[in-house]
Design brief:
Helix 3 crosses helix 4. The chain has 342 residues and is mainly α. It is elongated. Among the domains are: 189 residues, no CATH class; 31 residues, no CATH class. The protein has a two-stranded antiparallel ribbon with strand order 1-2. A two-stranded antiparallel ribbon has the order 3-4.
Length: 342
Amino acid sequence: MSRLSELLAPRDDTQPWKGRYAHYDLVKEASIAVGIMALLAIVLSVLFSSPDDKPSTVAQWSRGTPVNFVTAATLELNGTSPTAEYGPPYNHNAAGQHAWFLRPQKWLAVSHPINTANDFVIDPLRTVSGDPTLRSAVAEYQAAPEKTKKAWGEAYAKPLEEYETAAEEKKTLPKTVTLDSTTDAVSVQVSGAGPVPRMMAGLLSLAQSGGLDGSLLTSKQFFQTDYTKPLLFMSDGGLLTERAEGQHLLGDQWGMMNETGSYPGQTWLWLYTVWYQVEPFKASQNADILVMLVMGLLSLLFICIPFIPIINRLPRWIPIYRLIWKEHYRSLAPTGRSGPSA
């Protein structure tokens, strides 16, 4: 056997070891390794971990932006909030995401029923004791016909929406809505709103005391772990959007892959999230299901690559594999076997 063949031939590691042996303390080495890794984990966590922000609550929202809270609560009462008009799994007020004959939200039906007027406004107000005026307002509202309820709600919501629009556009605020800086009470100058102003005042007071958070978490479970209702309520207002903007999470910088702060998120999701930035997905109300269908098709094509004519021949036409496995093919050379032909 030539010198070159001896160098290229694999070593025989099956022979008994004939060299000297040295003492090795495995427990000591393992303890040192674990200690170093634990120290590195702690230091890196302190330097690069995500910020531990306090959770958002309805009480925090109602104290910080009372007008926005009352505006969102009025929309919940009217049944015109995003949650009220979402459809399954919360209600039957919309068809949900669909494409062609595929209607998964409709097929799965309403699994978490939410009536925004009752769950977010009326039922919490019923828990308030010692306020006969508020109880009378709730009873009057419930006894009224649906048409009258809608008229009351729309009359009360109109000046609030004008106030919110002016505040967002940094224009002069209308005088029909005033905020008491001392008590954080909201006053709306409007006629034809029936008992709605009293109900909204009571709900704002309940929320600022922290009682509404508890009312929205009430369930039959021993541990209250279902935060669906308070999260949906807050998402219908401006609190979560405001926090997302402060953390650069609105998608303007890194798209839908944003991580907390000014950093890109899961870069391996770029192929999935990039579709949301282009038309027709960007403007579609059914973007979620359309993107899922596109990614499903691309994934299926990727799985079928070995069976697609021409494409499955590319590795042989462009033999990069020989460069990667050059040691393997070099070891086969003396025996006359050269592997698959290029």
